[in-house]
């Protein structure tokens, strides 16, 4: 089984493919003609319908957005905790 090399498509290309579909061209024809994966094409259609954007950040669920913020906050707290531990060690030596 040959592994397909990952390709990156521009937002304008994705929009053109979605527009072709909206104008009546079948999914199968678009996928075959442009050598796309069905899952990628379906994702583009869903993203276009929900947010109109193909950027990952714009298509995150509320839970995923909250999780990203919380992970960032935990990282900040851990860094502050490490700084305080180092300061306590330094102060303990004096």
Can you tell me about this structure?
With 94 residues, this protein is mainly α. The protein has 2 domains: 52 residues, Arc Repressor Mutant, subunit A, CATH 1.10.10; 35 residues. The longest helix is centred in the last third of the chain and has 32 residues. The chain is elongated and about 75 Å long. The model has no long low-confidence stretch (mean pLDDT 87).
The count of domains is 2
What would CATH call the class of the largest domain?
Mainly Alpha
- Total of DSSP H or I helical runs spanning 4+ residues: 4
Global Rg: 23 Å
In whole angstroms, the N-to-C terminal distance is: 66 Å
Main beta sheet = none
Stretches where pLDDT is under 50 for at least 5 consecutive residues are none
User: How would you spell out the order of helices and strands?
Assistant: HHHH
Percent helix: 55-70%
β-sheet strand percentage: under 5%
Number-wise, the strands total 0
Produce the secondary structure layout:
Layout: H1 11-22, H2 27-34, H3 38-50, H4 62-93
Helix pairs in contact: 1-3
List keywords for this structure.
2 domains; 4 helices; mainly alpha; Arc Repressor Mutant, subunit A; 94 residues
Would you kindly provide a brief summary of this structure?
This protein has helices spanning 11-22, 27-34, 38-50, 62-93. It is mostly helical and 94 residues long.
């Amino acid at each position: 089984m040959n592994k397909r090399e990952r390709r990156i498509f521009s937002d304008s290309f994705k929009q053109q493919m979605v527009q072709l579909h909206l104008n009546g061209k079948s999914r199968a024809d678009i996928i075959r003609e442009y050598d796309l994966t069905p899952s990628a094409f379906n994702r583009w259609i869903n993203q276009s319908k929900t947010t109109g954007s193909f950027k990952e950040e714009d298509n995150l669920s509320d839970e995923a957005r909250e999780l990203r913020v919380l992970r960032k906050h935990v990282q900040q707290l851990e860094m502050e905790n490490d700084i305080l531990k180092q300061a306590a060690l330094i102060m303990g030596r004096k």
